[in-house]
Amino acid sequence: MTDLAAPALKAPLPETWVYPCAVERGGGLWVEPGGFHIDPVRGVDRAVITHGHSDHARGGHTHVLATPETLAIMESRLGEGSGTHKQPLPYGRPLTVGEVTVTLVPAGHVLGSAQVVVEWRGSRVVVSGDYKRRRDPTCAPFEPVPCDAFVTEATFGLPVFRHPPAEDEVAKLLHSVALYPDRSHIVGAYALGKAQRVIALLREAGWDRPLWLHGALIPLCELYERHGVPLGELRPATGASKEDLKGQIVLSTPSAVQDKWSRRMPDPVVAYASGWMRVRQRARQKGVELPLVISDHCDWDELCQTLMDVQAPEVWVTHGREEALVHWATGQGFRARPLHLVGFEEEDT
């Protein structure tokens, strides 16, 4: 998979002395010398948020630090609960917070998603949040940051998960539309990130006709466009006739695909955009006729490659298939351990 060697390991030292981040009993990451939490699972005084998905961006915080895009997403989704005092921090701009320096760098997950780089007393910890390594026309690409400790997700942390190119999956969708011109195609896609990515990939593939949206997708699509992500002509599917939707592509929230809302579509082909569509049983359970393996998370090879790229002697694995990635990393010479953080995986990945 890679020709890179694992890093030469430093002698183990007490975590509380070497690294500013510690796992709190409540399930969050606490940065004691900075006086803040990263993606806390409950309301706190000071929070640094990696991205706008609600398993990471919860309400009830007093002070919130995030990228300008993430703050806009939080305000759109949480309203007054998005934080009493909000401080935008653009990518690549170091900021002193307490005794630490904080820098946000792109994570490649969704619009505004960031890795939190925490530097303190000569050590550097990178909390990656959710991330992907594939190209995405709707957000800034992931940037590997060499560090002493790397906190990684493991959503698809099993060797069975190897995502095909997203462009190939979109080509499957367009081929199906051409085969069945009298049917509509309804694509289940998560409202933040996945829907906008599918739209952008369809545009790149040459679909220049209108795309029809479930009403729950419209506010975040409009937000993406206000932040410079062009999505082309979008129309609300609610109120459209069956004749309007014949031969069209309709994007919907995942829950609405199987709801009575979808019955207004003319003989719909049900598609679903998620990394979980690699698992055939999941596709069958959801009644999916056209599974699209499009994920906003890394697959197994990309997780492993990322550990080699950042060259962190310490690897902390969280929210996902922790044990398999810990086992692989340990075999490569990393000091790896699971964090067992709780409250994640809200989005349909």
TrEMBL record:
<dbReference type="InterPro" id="IPR050698">
    <property type="entry name" value="MBL"/>
</dbReference>
<dbReference type="GO" id="GO:0004521">
    <property type="term" value="F:RNA endonuclease activity"/>
</dbReference>
<dbReference type="GO" id="GO:0016874">
    <property type="term" value="F:ligase activity"/>
</dbReference>
<dbReference type="InterPro" id="IPR036866">
    <property type="entry name" value="RibonucZ/Hydroxyglut_hydro"/>
</dbReference>
<keyword id="KW-0269">Exonuclease</keyword>
<feature type="domain" description="Metallo-beta-lactamase">
    <location>
        <begin position="41"/>
        <end position="178"/>
    </location>
</feature>
<dbReference type="Pfam" id="PF00753">
    <property type="entry name" value="Lactamase_B"/>
</dbReference>
<protein>
    <submittedName>
        <fullName>Ligase-associated DNA damage response exonuclease</fullName>
        <ecNumber>3.1.-.-</ecNumber>
    </submittedName>
</protein>
<dbReference type="GO" id="GO:0004527">
    <property type="term" value="F:exonuclease activity"/>
</dbReference>
<dbReference type="InterPro" id="IPR026360">
    <property type="entry name" value="Xnuc_lig_assoc"/>
</dbReference>
<keyword id="KW-0540">Nuclease</keyword>
<dbReference type="InterPro" id="IPR001279">
    <property type="entry name" value="Metallo-B-lactamas"/>
</dbReference>
<keyword id="KW-0378">Hydrolase</keyword>
<keyword id="KW-0436">Ligase</keyword>
